[in-house]
Amino acid sequence: MIKVKDLHKHFGGFHAVDGANLEIAEGSITGLIGPNGAGKTTLFNVIAGVLEPTAGRVTMAGKDITGLPPHELFHKGLLRTFQIAHEFSSMTCRENLMMVPGNQSGERLWNTWFGRRRIANEERALRAKADEVLEFLTIEHLADHRAGQVSGGQKKLLELGRTMMVDARIVFLDEVGAGVNRTLLNTIADAIIRLNKERQYTFVVIEHDMDFIGRLCDPVICMAEGRVLAEGTLAEIKANEQVIEAYLGTGLKNKVNT
Amino acid sequence: MDLLNAIVALSNFVLVPAIAYGSQLALGALGVTLIYGILRFSNFAHGDTMAFGTMATILFTWWFQSLGISFGPLPTALLALPLGILGCMAIVLLTDRGIYRFYREQKAKPVILVIVSMGVMFIMNGLVRVIIGPDDQNFADGDRFIITAREFREMTGLREGLALKSTQGITVITAVIVVALLFWFLNRTRTGKSMRAYSDNEDLALLSGINPERVVMITWLIVAALATVAGVLYGLDKSFKPFVYFQLLLPIFASAIVGGLGSPVGAIAGGFIIAFSEVTITYAWKKVLTYLLPEAWQPDGLVQLMSTDYKFAVSFVILLIVLLVKPTGLFKGKSV
Ligand SMILES: Nc1ncnc2c1ncn2[C@@H]1O[C@H](COP(=O)(O)OP(=O)(O)OP(=O)(O)O)[C@@H](O)[C@H]1O
Ligand SMILES: [Mg+2]
Predict the structure, then answer these.
(1) What does the domain layout of chain B look like in residue ranges?
(2) Structural domain for A47, as ranges
(3) Does residue B218 carry a pLDDT above 90?
(4) B54 vs A40, A151, B83, B203, CA distance in Å?
(5) Where is the signal peptide (chain A) (predicted)?
(6) Torsions phi, psi for B144 (to 5 deg)
(7) Contact indicator for A195, A164 with CB cutoff of 8 Å
(8) A88·B191 Cβ contact <8 A
(9) Concatenated DSSP letters of B243-284
(10) What pLDDT does residue B293 have?
């Protein structure tokens, strides 16, 4: 579904992404792992249109999407979450979710005057949906809290919730699990699996937690120094010498194998 | 009786003028604060945008007057105001398309945009002077007073009179309506909410499908309307002179910064704080004090803290104090 061809992103002389090639299959939950600074987040940023690539192509379902602005990609069904949770801090959690579907009839200026009834109905549907998502994420009690004031882990849940407000085709999750407690982590994993099965979302998941990756992802891609090091099932990746050297380390190997 | 006289004198020379002036500053500061919140730079051309909108309104007013159209007891300028706003919107969109958009695409730093806005300021300033001339233009017509000092004295039997100019009444009423509309728009409509979202967190707004060019365009349209209304009200109340609008930039920026740049509520509060400080500090208190103090303590001088020539210094000092003590302003804007 997504193809990344020979992608480069340089910051000055520093090659954060240095010729990455990868392919995300439609309907898969692909794991993206790699050491800190491997260029995973940068790769997401380039794909999602936040950063312009220095060179290379990104295609989605055969169409070139390189360098398209984020809001256009959003309307094509490409969504992402942030490693460091972002939120509209002055709005409530519910309003944050309700903000997501950007292309509503309320967005047309004249409709604010002439299409009042339709807008009111849309608002109601949107509100119901937001409440449903909040309940799904077990944070319904935070609906009327200011998003700027909820905890870091709760902000992460809100990030995930955002992707559930619209019918996405592919969602890039940047460490949604980091800083979230175990039980919630399971909730998130379940949510991802359900969205994948029931709503045919394709996922790309960056995580450092191997249990989490193991539960969800097939295949797994390992990046290091801006390049794809290896790709395969988690078992294959764990057995890969290069990966062990660059990321998992020999000390970790035993732990991971259990 | 003396107390009442003192209150009336105070209202006449301090409260009423400061409320009117504060409303004008608040409307101006709202424009500055919206641009800062959404486009993230301090728009130095705002004073001259006000001048341009006012000029357009004056030209339409003259045209209406030549056609014999009038608005009864109200100034004809109010009829011409919508057309003036459209004119101002046109020039503002033109500068955005022609100038600011280029720098946005380059992802230019705010500092560069500030300098660019200074360039726009000089161009607009020149344009206004070429079209209408650098001189004073008086364009207020209709009834001058809601109540004159004499009528007030006869009505109440007090020694002091309270004059209420119709432009002051119009200023306050218009400002209330405009501010109510603006807040309704920002808080109740989806477009308004997406503007708030964009101002709150640009990256997230983009990734939530909000079209930045649309948000920017609507912001400029609103700012043009606010600037024209503020400029016309000021012009009706005092008079129209291009250079004065350029000078207004300082109190307007002071208002926006004191309230907290990016915060609409702050802009309004800031406008009134600056206006009240300016008027009270430059007012000669002798008259009020004569009523209040016993004979022996009565002041000899004017009891004026500062001459009106220095009124801009007041904004400047308040600005400095706020920047030193609370750089984010009273209502927690973005720090400058
Ligand atoms: N805007 C930027 N300017 C300069 N260098 C950057 C920028 N963004 C990222 N980098 C550099 O690019 C490299 C890759 O960063 P990136 O955030 O993609 O790593 P990552 O794989 O997501 O790591 P982590 O697992 O820690 O999140 C880092 O060395 C970082 O310092
Ligand atoms: Mg990262």
Answers:
(1) 2-325
(2) 2-88+166-257
(3) yes
(4) 53, 49, 10, 36
(5) none
(6) -80, -40
(7) yes
(8) no
(9) HHHHHTHHHHHHHHHHH-TT-HHHHHHHHHHHHHHHHHHHSB
(10) 82
User: A150 in a domain, yes or no?
Assistant: no
CATH number for position A185: 3.40.50.300
Residue A211 domain flag? yes
Residue that wins the pLDDT comparison between B2 and B17: B17
Average pLDDT over chain B, rounded to an integer:
91
CB atoms within 10 A of CB A257: 11
CB contact under 8 A, A69 and B212: yes
Instruction: Assess if residue A105 is contained within a domain.
Output: no
The answer to whether A185 touches A173, Cβ cutoff 8 Å, is no
Q: What one-letter code names the amino acid at B266?
A: G
Q: Residue A250 falls within a domain, yes or no?
A: yes
Model confidence at A102: pLDDT above 50:
yes
- Cβ of A91 within 8 Å of Cβ of B209? The answer is no
Q: Is the ipTM of this complex over 0.85?
A: no
Residue A50: list chain B partners with CB under 8 A: 203, 206-207
The dotted CATH code for B2-325 is 1.10.3470
| Ligand 1 nearest-atom number relative to CA A83 | 27
CA B25, B28, B31, B36 dihedral sign is negative
Ligand 1: nearest atom to the Cα of A208: 25
Cα separation, B112 vs B94, whole angstroms: 19
A143 to chain B, any CB pair closer than 8 A? The answer is no
The confidence band for A166, taking pLDDT boundaries of 50, 70 and 90, is confident
Q: What SS3 state is found at A20?
A: strand
Whole-model pTM: value is: 0.88
Interhelix angle B46-66/B212-237, nearest 10 degrees: 60
pLDDT at position B336: 45
Mean pLDDT, range B95-106, rounded to an integer: 94
What is the Cα–Cα distance from B30 to B66, expressed in whole angstroms?
34
Q: Which ligand is nearest to the CA of A39?
A: 1
Choose the closest CB to B207 out of A70, A90, A104.
A70
Is residue B257 pLDDT above 90, yes or no? yes
